[in-house]
């Protein structure tokens, strides 16, 4: 099914930002949250209200850049029309270009072997341009934790966002302004274990929620003197699995937020101050 041409009143971003609302009562955003195990999409207005039930498909592997663009386009056909699209995906994304992505370069998903051909295909792939061209509308592509953060930050002080899912995602904001992305989730935390491996989904399944939640507390305690945040938000699909006893140890400056922020942030990311 071909996509209609973009509304001429909505010019492509340069390369991002701004509410393209002149002559338009409200802008609908196709928000796509790409994870290691699933890809979700919804259409939201500028207030973050969904205009249909979100749709979800399992993340297909092996996953080429072109296949991910195809999946996004297919999800769009199952939702109401939109005037712009936001994509959040794991890894280091700069100006919509993939510098590195951890899961999509593997042969069969997280923790499987890296496929050198996929690694080459993803490196320096301009995902933002590819999505905009395929869907015929302005596109914004960010790290998935950055999109998640756009949905929850209060634009007050230093705010850190950690997403707990297949691995560990992170983003930080100062005064509501998105800071340059750091892939410290790939750094070692214990012996040869990275943060991703230490509190990712495979370890939660192996340890159970109780022991895994202790690891989450250890990560928060270890990062507190590094960031001295004003507020830490814990999101992602596994944030709901943190035990009450672990939550009580985290402190009043730590807030658990719903995983739906990954979609709500797709609408709000367009209004973030430029970096």
TrEMBL record:
Gene3D superfamilies: 3.30.420.40. SUPFAM superfamilies: Actin-like ATPase domain. PANTHER family: BIFUNCTIONAL UDP-N-ACETYLGLUCOSAMINE 2-EPIMERASE_N-ACETYLMANNOSAMINE KINASE (PTHR18964:SF149), ROK (REPRESSOR, ORF, KINASE) FAMILY (PTHR18964). Belongs to the ROK (NagC/XylR) family. This is ROK family protein. It comes from Myceligenerans pegani.
């Amino acid at each position: 099914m071909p996509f209609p041409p973009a509304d001429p009143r909505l010019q492509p971003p340069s390369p991002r930002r701004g509410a393209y609302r002149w002559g338009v009562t409200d802008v609908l955003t196709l928000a796509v949250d790409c994870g290691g195990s699933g890809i979700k999409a919804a259409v939201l207005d500028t207030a973050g209200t969904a205009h249909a039930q979100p749709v979800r498909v399992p993340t297909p592997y092996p996953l080429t850049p072109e296949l991910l663009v195809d999946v996004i386009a297919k999800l769009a056909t199952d939702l109401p029309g939109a005037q712009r699209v936001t994509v959040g995906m794991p890894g280091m994304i700069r100006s919509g270009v993939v510098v590195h992505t951890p899961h999509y370069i593997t042969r069969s998903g997280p923790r499987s072997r890296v496929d050198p051909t996929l690694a080459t295909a993803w490196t320096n792939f301009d995902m933002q341009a590819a999505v905009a061209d395929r869907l015929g509308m302005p596109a914004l592509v960010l790290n998935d934790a950055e999109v998640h953060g756009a949905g929850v930050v209060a634009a007050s002080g230093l705010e850190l966002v950690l997403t707990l899912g297949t691995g560990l995602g992170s983003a930080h904001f100062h005064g509501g302004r998105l800071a340059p992305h750091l892939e410290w989730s790939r750094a070692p935390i214990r012996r040869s274990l990275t943060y991703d491996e230490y509190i990712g989904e495979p370890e939660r399944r192996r340890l159970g929620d109780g022991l895994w939640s202790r690891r989450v507390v250890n990560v928060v305690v270890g990062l507190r003197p590094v960031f001295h945040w004003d507020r830490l938000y814990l999101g992602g699909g596994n944030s709901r699995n943190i035990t009450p006893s672990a939550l009580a140890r985290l402190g009043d400056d730590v807030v658990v937020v719903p995983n739906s922020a990954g979609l709500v942030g797709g609408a709000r990311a367009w209004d973030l101050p430029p970096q």
